[in-house]
Amino acid sequence: MKFSLKPTPAFVRDMTDGHSVLGLAISTLLYIVCVSGTLAVFYNEFERWEQASELENLDVSPSVYQLATEQAVALAKEQNEEFDSVKFTIPNSDMPRLKVEVGDLERYVAEDGSLLGEVEHKWTHFLAYLHFALSLPLGLGVPLVGLIGVLMTALIVSGLLAHPKIIKDAFSLRLAGSKRLQQVDLHNRLGVWAAPFHLAIAITGAFIGLSQVAAFAIAGVFFAGDTERVEHILYREHPVMEENAAQVPLPDFAAIFSQMEQIAQGEERTKLEVVFPGREGQAVEIWTRVPEKLVWGERYHFNPDGSLIEKEGWSEGDAAKQVYLSTFRLHFGHFSGFPVKIAYFLLGIGMCVLVVSGINIWLVRKRQRGQPAVRLERIWMAQVWGIPFAIALSAVTYLAFAIPAAQVFWLTTVVLSVIAAFVGTVAGWSMLLRGATIASCIMAVVVHASLYGADSFVRASLVANTVWLLIAAGIAASCLYTWVRHRDGAFASTMGGAVGNN
Amino acid sequence: MGKLPFLRFTIGREPKSPDVIFMPSSFYIIAGLATVFAIAGIFGLYSAWLRSGSQPLRRWMGWGLLLLSAFAWSTVVGVEYGVSIATLLAMLAALTLLALKGDWPSGPPRQEKQRSGGVAPKEALLQLWLRGVLRFLVIALLPTVSGLLAALLYFDFTGFGESARLVGAAFVAVIVWTLAMVWCSADKKLLRPSAALLVFSLASGFAVMPAA
Questions:
Q1: Residue A23: is it exposed, middle or buried by C-beta count within 10 angstroms (0-12/13-18/19+)?
Q2: Are A59 and B16 inside 8 Å of each other by CB?
Q3: Which of B1, B5, B6 is nearest to B78 (CA)?
Q4: B208 interface with A at CB cutoff 8 Å
Q5: Per residue in A20-64, pLDDT tens?
Q6: Does B49 contact A161 at a Cβ distance shorter than 8 Å?
Q7: Mean pLDDT of all residues in B94-112
Q8: Is the pLDDT of residue A247 over 50?
């Protein structure tokens, strides 16, 4: 009996059908996750863009932390804010602003340690929250997006298995063929060549989203529901403060930073947390970024006098912890600086095109079979361009009128989908919403420039505004291409008619 | 090796750090070579697969150059970043080559042929919808249960350290979940994967029950 690894036509047909079922089931949600994730690659830049004129300074002396901690504690007491720690963002290459967080209050810190205005990153947080929880409550949204990650992984696996001529067709892109051939080639080439990126994003996304579910299940079965016990397998336990702990002076920040210079040279400091500030039993934690490692970071625990309690060891030793903590940077594209962010952004756009072309193939196939899903085609087109439009519009309305971005996004998306179900044509919706997206992207830059003036075109704001303008330019180029082809079509039919009349 | 070349914009009104971190010249030479290897590797595969007949030399040269690119990147930025960057570069090089060599349409859009009629009877459509909903429910439910139970089995029965069992269990959950979904979505006989996953789930449930 001859053994062959070549898939049979029946196997390929079954895989293709399964691929279609999975893709259709999650099309819109997957597309929202992909579009928001592509923009969220520039999460840090968008955060800084939202408050473009805030002070940026990488060089902060330890005494500033001392004063800022005192001020933050005083502010929390004044506003009856409950807290058990004061957290700082240490200015770093991703976020070169000193910020302090106590309870739910978050403020910028001046170079002399005094507190400045409130930290407001509501639009960026909307974008990230849309990506990882679809604006749903965390407990529901994160596992749902994790499930979408699993479905996406299943789509990639079934897509590759349904592709018997993977090598023969590897460089074939027949865009001049029939509509179905165009979409199939686009879908398959993007799917195959960017498969490592898609798999990395889908698996890490599923892992991040569903690790909590797995941890709950393990806690429920093996640790009598004690989820903290499971959490502490990976993370060190926080110290517990005794009730009525005595007041003591704040930690010696100069000694702690001096110790850090000796033990963590070359690691970029990113966060500092004072647990139980000014109380007996207080401790300090410093987070760093470790060069050449994908792990999220390293954490150092200090006594108030500056002596090291422990290095947590995320970046060395335990391989399982390293694997777990490497999933985040791999998913976000936050390693190796700006060039990798650009690569993730471009491949993210490719992933959006992959999702769109997948659904387009199904719609074209239905049309070719004589069963066109006209209403569904219009709804899908309204979502394909309506979702980027709604995101850009939410940025404009948030910047200009402080309208909550999630409401604008969901209302726009739902209203457009409902209207498209009843009126218009696919081509009409495509052109209208492409135009609207271009206008919204440009408006986002115009409104930002009117609010922040020259600060709109330096540092991170330059990056964020360039992203908006590049998106507008890309979509404008696609409109121009469509217009030229239609003009040629009209010209050809006029000429054909003239020749026919003669 | 120090930091990577962040494209850093002027910080603050009185910049206290350089706009761009300059790396030693050896970094740029090796990184440049590694980039050239990635592009050449993709081009090697392109020329091998485009020609008729087997082209083992070109094919292996293509894969070899891609590996060499990953190795060269790893020497300057470490293995973890190096492999990631080389893979990203290879993907972008392939997609750029496709875009450049692609058969772009220039004339007016083609008139698509469409079969007429073919509207399925309402009962057949309803049956199709019901089958679709049933299949989706099976895809959503059974692989979820199987994935989570596989994670519990892994955590309970492997003899590694606690963190390896925990992280491994989460990965096993995702992998089993995914493969079960592929099976449920692709198997025409829905009863087959359903029965198999149900048996697996029940057996796993009984196996981990003593621990609960």
A1: buried
A2: yes
A3: B1
A4: yes
A5: 888 888 899 999 999 999 999 999 999 999 999 888 887 889 999
A6: no
A7: 80
A8: yes
Q: Show the DSSP H helices in A285-373 as ranges.
A: 319-332, 338-368
Closest CA to B20 of B30, B12, B10: B10
Please indicate whether, in this complex, the C-beta atoms of A18 and B114 are within 8 angstroms of each other.
Answer: no
pLDDT band at B24 (very low <50, low <70, confident <90, very high): confident
Contact in structure between A124 and A50 (CB atoms under 8 Å) = yes
What is the chain A residue with the closest CA to B129? A21
With a cut of 50, say whether residue A143 has pLDDT above it.
Answer: yes
Least confident of A61-65, A399-403, B202-206: B202-206
Q: How far is CA B202 from CA A81, B125, B187, in A?
A: 49, 35, 21
Hey, where are the domains in chain A? 8-51+131-235+335-370, 55-119+241-311, 373-502
Give the Cα separation of B138 and A355 in Å (integer).
23
Query: Smallest Cβ distance to A324: which of B10, B167, B185?
Result: B167
Inter-chain CB proximity A57 and B182 less than 8 Å? no
Determine the average pLDDT of the residues in B149-162. 87
Q: How far apart are CA B53 and CA B129, in angstroms?
A: 46
A287 phi and psi angles, rounded to 5 deg: -100, 145
CB A283 within 8 A of CB A239: yes
Sign of the torsion formed by the C-alpha atoms of B12, B17, B18 and B23:
negative
